[in-house]
Write a structure and sequence with these properties.
In chain A, the strands form 4 sheets. Chain A has a 7-stranded mixed β-sheet, with helices on both faces. Chain A folds into 3 domains: 43 residues, no CATH class; 111 residues, Alpha-Beta Complex (Aspartate Aminotransferase, domain 1); 261 residues, Aspartate Aminotransferase, domain 2 (3-Layer(aba) Sandwich), CATH 3.40.640.10. Chain A has 14 helices and 14 strands. Chain A is globular and about 80 Å long. By secondary structure, chain A is of the alpha/beta class. In chain A, helix 5 packs parallel to helix 12 and helix 12 packs across helix 14. By secondary structure, chain B is an alpha/beta fold. The two termini of chain B are 31 Å apart. In chain B, strands 1-7-6-5-4-2-3 form a 7-stranded mixed β-sheet, sandwiched between helices. In chain B, strands 10-12-11 form a 3-stranded antiparallel β-sheet, with helices on one face. Helices cover 36% and strands 11% of the residues of chain B. The chains are: A alpha/beta, B alpha/beta. The interface between A and B is large, with 209 and 198 residues. Bound molecules: pyridoxal-5'-phosphate. The site of pyridoxal-5'-phosphate has 14 residues of chain B, from helix 6. Pyridoxal-5'-phosphate binds next to helix 6 of chain B.
């Protein structure tokens, strides 16, 4: 086997030291009845060259978004990724390390996480961030649970404009701990939560209200009414945000959020069929900070007074607190968090603002072009960032397949989420005017 | 080459107006932002990100990387973590645009290759575990535990046995096991270990009952020992109406040798970042798929991939619990595990486990005269020593761990499992050459001598690292969790 360096002589030497004749004997503790006496039913070994060919075949059966132009978003976005990222993140010292349990020889990862935490605080306007969660949806679920623990309440208020898959994850996590959920319906005309829906909620029982900003339809929710009512009754404001939108939008900290989460895929991570990405998780105030799930890195000094970094506040965590831990998370998404940190660093203050600005401009350009088309309408009136919903009485799935023949993937048909006729378009800075104009022409032909 | 004690933070390299990356010029008509989004929503200043050049970014992270130990840098015998070699070809094949640049909501017809990979990987993991149906959604081992427990809970609920809320866990279990139980509202019932390090069968018999939801077990367990009584244990739990959960963190010992399904387990999670060599990435991303019995398959999170003729499609299992994350899990991570299985084949995987076990036993044999070995019996892929002999000289396991850094090694896992005092858990893996194992053994012996002759050398270690021993208590007492502009 090509990764096993043990030679026959070395093996013989080891066996001799152990006083056994065969490796087989080392497995004598396994009862004979459960010893596998046949070969695993798996395909035979491939050489490196064969493996590369096999993967080329598999990958070749997929239409990739380097060869077709896409307007899909809904949680996974086609943003530009600076070339240096893969070179940095691919360095073996980062790639092949584990959680930095021995800080003196893992300062590289620890400092990069400390910087990542600072970057997330800058974006969100919060005081502290953890080192990452699995993804945005599970981060939101943990945020809701944290709100319940912090307020000792067992009710969570969820907007119906939350990404349906995130809602599904949150529901499962909450139900597992017997936490109840109340839904806030959205206003059919604006596409955002109707402030009137906030009435009639048993707020004194609510641990938190969640706001997704922009919401699943790409629209901007009015956060203030949520904040005012939940805080008045001692609950928390939890925001799930799109990090790219924070280049332009007021930070959740400024809006009064208590816990902020989101998915960091768009910060330099590949779409990768949905993973891996990272969830980010930030909060403020020492009471809430000490309830955060997951790893946290803090600054300290060494025995000579030199600045250094360590994993800290570990008494929250499973390896110490076991069933009393604030979460069960152990491995997180460190390399994706590193990716996000490198992305935000190289983009910098101006570059990052440009990403948001151009995405906003291009999304509005495409919307305007599409709306000039007969048969397409905008069902919702609230302002949007870089995603928008259109409506037409056509079979969007079918249209997408036909667009694919011409090198395009259209928007996401929302019929899969029970909203027929609606389609969600996402536009990033990576799209060009030429691509969009061509797309509009094609679509006109297909819809007519 | 000298290394500075500290590397400035990226923020400390920033200079106003400096730029690292430029977008193409905007090619659509620019509209004032305030016309598109009401002013009320907008921030006055963009976030204060660093302003640095591309070269500064590259240097910064290169300098940081040089202060980090990884498998590529040197031996990393971190028990329970399986720090084996991560083949570089996996990085290449999973960055093909046909895998890395596909969107999770593309029409199924346009991602058949991805679905095929998912389907086949699910089948392979079923074969390796001796169970039936797989979900690839969980993002790590602990996430797999959570998912598996949710499935078990749904199964009991479906049978109107929702009162089964007690999960039995050995005292040697990993912290994620009880923490995952708490996340599904299960009460943790601890079963002690017997004198051979396995589950105390008599105690287990006394603990099971009408409220038993099941038992979570790592086998080989966290002491690196195979529990010989596993079949009896399985019967006891099953007879009481409970299910068996297999924490697959230690699966590197058993591939092609024994299968959790045959041992009586109903749910298994694998840590693909351990056994199947996907890089640990400084703490993730990993992947923690679970495989379950036929009976539990209808409860798995959806969607799962189904094969119909020669097409693949997503379906949601009949009584699916729902989702544990968005999309389909850490696709590009488990694609590496798929590559690992394909390049090893059945024979290769078995050889991996045999070699891992041989290496561990060899090291244990050569170290047990110098360090206390609490369970002196054949181990599997790892073994646990105790630093109690060294403690007599005022040296703790932590000091031994720190001293190892001076010799260029990463420390073993320490203070886990908790059933061993001053635990030192060593997992060499199969990919290390014998010469490295021998060097490590020699260094461990030398450190044992140092502990007798010059304890202070250890208690003040490390001495040759860029920073000296870091004050963790201070970090926790006065948390500084972000950089602040001076
Ligand atoms: C025995 C055991 N179980 C579970 C886990 C949790 O796995 P993960 O870190 O992938 O969540 C670990 C991780 O170290 C482990 O060693």
């Amino acid at each position: 086997m090509r990764y096993l360096p043990l030679t026959q002589e070395e093996k013989a030497e080891m066996l001799q030291i152990l006083g056994v004749d065969e490796v087989e004997e080392l497995f004598d503790d396994i009862p004979e009845g459960i010893r596998l006496r046949e070969e695993l039913d798996l395909p035979g070994a491939l050489s490196e060259a064969e493996l590369v060919r096999h993967f080329a075949e598999l990958a070749g059966q997929n239409k990739n978004l380097k060869e077709v132009v896409s307007f899909l978003g809904a949680g996974s976005y086609d943003h530009l990724v600076p070339a240096l990222i893969k070179h940095i993140v691919g360095r073996g010292e980062f790639l092949t390390a584990y959680t930095p349990y021995q800080p003196e020889i893992t300062q590289g990862v620890l400092q990069s996480i400390f910087e990542y935490q600072t970057l997330i605080c800058e974006l969100t306007g919060m005081e502290a961030s953890n080192a990452s969660m699995y993804d945005g949806a599970s981060a939101l679920a943990e945020a809701a649970l944290m709100a319940c623990a912090a307020t000792r309440r067992e009710l969570v208020v969820l907007p119906s404009t939350l990404h349906p898959e995130w809602r599904n994850v949150v529901r499962l996590y909450l139900e597992s701990q017997d936490v109840s959920i109340v839904d806030l319906p959205y206003d059919q005309a604006s596409g955002i939560v109707n402030p009137q829906a906030l009435e009639g909620i048993p707020w004194p029982d609510a641990a938190c209200v969640v706001v997704q900003q922009p919401n699943f339809f790409g629209l901007l929710e009015n956060v203030a009414p949520f904040r005012d009512v939940v805080k008045k009754h001692g609950g928390l404001l939890v925001m799930a945000v799109d990090p790219i939108s924070l280049s332009l939008l007021k930070s959740p900290g400024e809006l009064g959020a208590d816990i902020v989460v989101g998915d960091g895929q768009s910060l330099g991570n590949a779409m990768g069929f949905g993973g891996p990405s990272l969830g980010f998780f930030a909060t403020s105030g020492s009471k809430l900070i000490r309830r955060m799930p997951g790893r946290v890195v803090g600054e300290t000094v060494d025995s000579e007074g030199t600045r250094g970094y360590v994993l800290t506040l570990q008494t929250r965590e499973q390896h110490i607190r076991r069933e009393k831990a604030t979460s069960n998370i152990c491995s997180n998404q460190a390399l994706n968090a590193l990716t996000a940190a490198v992305y935000l660093s190289v983009m910098g203050k101006e570059g990052f603002r440009d990403v948001g600005y151009q995405s906003l401009q291009k999304a509005h350009y495409l919307q305007e072009q599409l709306l000039s088309m007969e048969g397409l309408s905008a069902p919702f009136s609230a302002p949007f960032f870089r995603e928008f919903v259109l409506k037409a009485a056509v079979d969007w799935e079918d249209i997408n397949l036909r667009l694919m023949e011409q090198g395009f993937v259209g928007g996401l048909p929302l019929a899969r989420f029970g909203l027929p006729e609606l389609v969600l378009f996402s536009v990033t800075e990576a799209r060009t005017k030429e691509e969009m104009d061509h797309f509009v022409d094609l679509l006109r032909g297909l819809i007519a | 080459m000298t290394m500075n004690k500290t590397v400035p933070l990226i923020f400390e390299r920033s200079a106003p107006g400096r730029r690292g990356y430029r977008l193409p010029d905007l090619d659509v008509p620019a509209v004032p932002v305030g016309d598109l989004i009401p002013q009320d929503f907008l921030r006055e200043e963009p976030p204060a990100l660093p302003e640095v050049s591309e070269l500064e970014v590259v240097r910064h992270y290169t300098q940081l990387s040089r202060r980090n130990h990884g498998v590529d840098v040197g031996f990393y015998p971190l028990g329970s973590c399986t720090m084996k070699y991560n083949p570089r070809v996996h990085e290449d094949v999973t960055s093909l645009p046909g895998l890395a640049a596909i969107h999770p909501y593309q029409p199924e017809e346009t991602v058949q290759g991805a679905l095929e990979l998912m389907y086949n990987l699910g089948q392979y993991l079923a074969v390796i575990s001796g169970l039936s149906a797989t979900t690839l959604q969980p993002a790590a081992g602990a996430h797999g535990e959570l998912t598996g427990l949710m499935v078990i809970k749904a199964y009991h609920a479906k049978r109107n046995e929702n009162h089964r809320r007690e999960m039995i866990i050995p005292d040697s279990a990993h912290g994620t096991n009880p923490a995952s139980c708490a996340m599904v509202g299960y009460k943790v019932v601890e079963v002690p270990s017997d004198e051979r390090g396995g589950v105390d069968v008599a105690a287990l018999k006394a603990l099971v009952g009408p409220n038993t939801a099941g038992l979570m077990l790592t086998n080989p367990n966290t002491l690196g020992l195979f529990d010989e009584n596993i079949c009896e244990i399985a019967d006891i739990v099953h007879d009481a109406g409970g299910l068996l959960y297999y924490d697959g963190a230690n699966a590197n010992a058993i591939m092609g040798i024994a299968r959790p399904g045959d041992m009586g387990f109903d749910v298994v999670h694998f840590n693909l970042h351990k056994t199947f060599s996907t890089p640990h990435g400084g703490g993730g991303p990993g992947a923690g798929p679970i495989v379950v019995s036929q009976e539990l398959a209808p409860f798995l999170p959806g969607p799962v991939v189904e094969k119909q003729g020669d097409r693949y499609r997503f379906v949601t299992p009949e009584h699916s619990i729902g989702r544990v994350r968005s999309f389909y899990g850490n696709f590009l991570v488990y694609a590496r595990a798929y590559a690992y299985i394909r390049s090893h084949g059945p024979e290769g995987l078995k050889q991996v486990s045999e070699t891992a076990v041989l290496h561990a036993n060899y090291m244990m044999q050569r170290l047990k005269d110098v360090y206390h070995l609490p369970y002196d019996r054949t181990c599997m892929h790892e073994f646990v020593l105790s630093g109690v002999w060294q403690k007599e000289h005022g040296v703790r396991t932590l000091d031994i761990a720190k001293r190892l850094s001076d010799y260029g090694f990463h420390a073993p896992t320490v203070y886990f499992p908790m059933v061993v005092e001053e635990a030192i858990m060593i997992e060499p893996t199969e990919t290390e050459p014998k010469s490295t194992l021998d060097q490590f053994i020699d260094v461990m012996k030398r450190i044992a001598e140092e502990a007798q002759e010059d304890p202070e050398l250890l208690t003040t270690a490390p001495h040759r690292t860029p920073v000296k021993r870091l004050d963790e208590a201070r970090a926790a007492r006065h948390p500084v969790l972000r950089w602040e502009k001076p």
